[in-house]
């Protein structure tokens, strides 16, 4: 009896895992490497949090791109870079744009800090991922 219950549980879990939709998360455009890695991690967390699987060779692709909305340098002795980015994610026919700001010692650092402002549990992120189901 115990073997039958365990076998059924394994079969059910296998069916649930097999039915999960898979995505490949790709970062497009000229984004600094560290920021690209953070964006890929954040969007992977979003998808996995809603039960999707993320695989390198999945048929469905979630593409992330970024455009600079504003760039400036702070006018002080320890100059810092400030960037305001529009980070766009697109999968199927759904699209979301996160407008984020980063301040850092140089452009790459500012991009990294801006990328970290994309929060997987934000309402905007959750609504986007829900639409993908």
Write a short abstract of this structure.
By secondary structure, this protein is α/β, with parallel strands linked by helices. It has four helices and five strands; from the N terminus they run αβαββββαα.
Any chance you could write out the topology, listing elements then pairs?
Layout: H1 2-19, E1 22-27, H2 33-49, E2 53-54, E3 60-73, E4 81-91, E5 94-104, H3 107-115, H4 123-131
Parallel strand pairs: 1-2, 1-3
Antiparallel strand pairs: 3-4, 4-5
Helix pairs in contact: 2-3
What does it look like?
It is a single chain. This protein is an alpha/beta fold. The chain has one domain: Double Stranded RNA Binding Domain (2-Layer Sandwich), CATH 3.30.160. Helix content is 40%, strand content 33%. β3 and β4 form a beta hairpin. The longest helix is centred in the first third of the chain and has 18 residues.
Properties at a glance:
elongated; Double Stranded RNA Binding Domain; 133 residues; 5 strands; alpha/beta
> Can you tell me the overall shape?
elongated
The termini sit apart by 37 Å
Task: Compute the number of strand runs.
Answer: 5
Here the CATH topology equals Double Stranded RNA Binding Domain
Q: How many domain regions?
A: 1
The level-1 CATH class: Alpha Beta
Structural class per helix/strand content? alpha/beta
Secondary-structure element string:
HEHEEEEHH
Largest sheet: 5 strands, mixed
CATH architectural category: 2-Layer Sandwich
Average pLDDT, rounded to a whole number, is 88
Radius of gyration: 19 Å
The helix count comes to 4
Question: Helical amount among residues, as a percent range?
Answer: 25-40%
* Major sheet: arrangement of strands: 2-1-3-4-5
Give the uncertain stretches in residue-range form: none
